[in-house]
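Below is a filled-in request sheet from our internal design queue. Each sheet records the structural input a requester submitted and the sequence that came back. We keep these sheets so that new team members can see what a complete request looks like end to end.

REQUESTER: design group, bay 2
PRIORITY: normal
MODE: inverse folding
CHAIN LENGTH: 211
BACKBONE (tokenized):
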């Protein structure tokens, strides 16, 4: 009711509308960069210097050094392509966040299998375990791509990704590598290196997409 003692019109109370803040792709990228940097740091800290100041002692560490190089390139490729993928992404949903965490989980196991391979490269189980981590990382990245495409319908990133032939091919090669580990571990490592060679050059499709 209108109070006659109050002069002038009665104004309705103001309603404040607060829009929910959504995670930005740049913030998600920054968090992921930090995790990947820690993964690389852990890997290099696992390398112990030789006990003797000789070339023979350094040659004895060859499996450890080669395992580190393979894993460094492996993680660096994911960082590179992950950067371009998120750079082209506009909408970040809860599904994208969890898919990204799923990828980081498998990548975080890389230092463990790298150290295992360095200590027992000639055995099948470490070679297969390395392949399983690489395989699940590839599957996780493929899932992340699918979730991002669903969250960004009709965007440039959808047109850039296309059928993602390289992603599907990588999964198949990693599965082959895991199987080869039980026949000849060196064939498994060669297969893993082949996948890295395929992905060594960043995805040109995403380089052309601007956020």
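RETURNED SEQUENCE:
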């Amino acid at each position: 009711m209108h109070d006659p003692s109050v002069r002038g019109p009665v104004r309705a109370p103001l309603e404040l509308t607060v829009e929910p803040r959504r995670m930005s792709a740049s913030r998600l990228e920054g968090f992921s960069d930090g995790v990947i940097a820690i993964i690389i740091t852990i890997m290099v800290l696992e390398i112990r210097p030789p006990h003797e100041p000789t070339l023979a002692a350094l040659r004895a560490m060859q499996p450890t050094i080669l395992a580190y190089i393979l894993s460094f390139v492996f993680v660096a490729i994911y960082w590179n392509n992950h950067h371009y993928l998120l750079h082209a992404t506009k909408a970040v949903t809860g599904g994208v966040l969890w898919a990204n965490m799923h990828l980081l989980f498998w990548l975080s196991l890389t230092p463990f299998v790298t150290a295992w391979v360095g200590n027992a490269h000639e055995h099948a189980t470490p070679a297969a375990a390395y392949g399983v981590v690489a395989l699940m990382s590839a599957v996780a990245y493929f899932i992340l791509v699918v979730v991002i495409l669903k969250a960004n319908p009709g965007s440039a990133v959808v047109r850039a990704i296309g059928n993602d032939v390289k992603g599907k091919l990588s999964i198949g090669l990693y599965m082959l590598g895991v199987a080869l580990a039980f026949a000849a571990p060196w064939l498994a490592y060669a297969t893993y290196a082949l996948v890295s060679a395929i992905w060594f050059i960043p995805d040109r499709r995403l380089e052309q997409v601007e956020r």
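SHEET NOTES:
- Residues 25-207 form one domain.
- The chain has one domain: 25-207.
FILED BY: M.R.
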